């Protein structure tokens, strides 16, 4: 039986006081999903939850053989305008990813939605950190529902 894929979606801004508990929850869910034959985890490369999720997958690789990180990125210049320390972390993750896929070349209106749809369409479930009914994370969770992709909420879930 082929291994399954789980994508991540979540907000770019995470309350600092919630990050330790969120990281622990991510570790627990990734381990649980791994036992259910989810070996591929796909992140969109954004700041915040995507970064935390990608780093969590990378940290669990030694413990979980065959665990893979796939980056599905909206464009080559995604980090344009980011602070240097965030670009360094993005590059660190990208160098360690097992696969990097770009859904477009340069930034365009709609490129983030295209990236989000690609993440969902290639996944068997989604781990979400959703705390409000607006923005890209809400759009992605709604798209999961429309596509029949189960969503595991690590935030309020709404």
Which terms would index this structure?
158 residues; Rossmann fold; 6-stranded parallel sheet; alpha/beta; globular
Q: What does this protein look like?
A:
The protein is of the alpha/beta class and 158 residues long. The chain has one domain: Rossmann fold. The chain contains 5 helices and 6 strands. The chain has a 6-stranded parallel beta sheet with strand order 4-3-2-1-5-6. Strand 1, helix 1 and strand 2 form a beta-alpha-beta unit. It is globular, with a radius of gyration of 14 Å.
Mean pLDDT: 95
Say how many strands there are: 6
Strand content: 15-25%
Order of helices and strands: EHEHEHEHEHE
Number of helices: 5
N- and C-termini, Cα separation = 34 Å
CATH-defined topology: Rossmann fold
Contiguous low-pLDDT stretches (5 residues minimum) are none
The second-level CATH architecture is 3-Layer(aba) Sandwich
* Strands side by side in the biggest sheet: 4-3-2-1-5-6
What's the CATH class, please?
A: Alpha Beta
Structural class by secondary-structure content: alpha/beta
> Helical proportion?
40-55%
Shape descriptor reads globular
């Amino acid at each position: 039986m082929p291994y399954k894929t789980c994508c991540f979606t979540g907000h770019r801004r995470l309350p600092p006081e919630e990050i330790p508990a969120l990281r622990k929850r991510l570790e627990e869910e990734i381990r649980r999903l791994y036992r259910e034959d989810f070996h591929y985890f796909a992140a969109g490369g954004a700041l915040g939850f995507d970064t935390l999720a990608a780093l969590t997958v990378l940290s669990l690789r030694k413990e979980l053989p065959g665990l893979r990180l796939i980056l599905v990125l909206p464009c080559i210049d995604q980090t344009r305008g980011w602070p240097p320390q965030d670009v360094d972390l993005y590059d660190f993750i990208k160098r360690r990813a097992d696969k990097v896929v770009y859904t477009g070349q340069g930034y365009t209106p709609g490129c983030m939605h295209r990236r989000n749809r690609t993440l969902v369409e290639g996944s068997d479930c989604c781990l979400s950190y959703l705390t409000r009914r607006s923005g890209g994370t809400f759009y992605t969770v709604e798209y999961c529902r429309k596509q029949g992709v189960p969503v595991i909420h690590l935030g309020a879930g709404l």
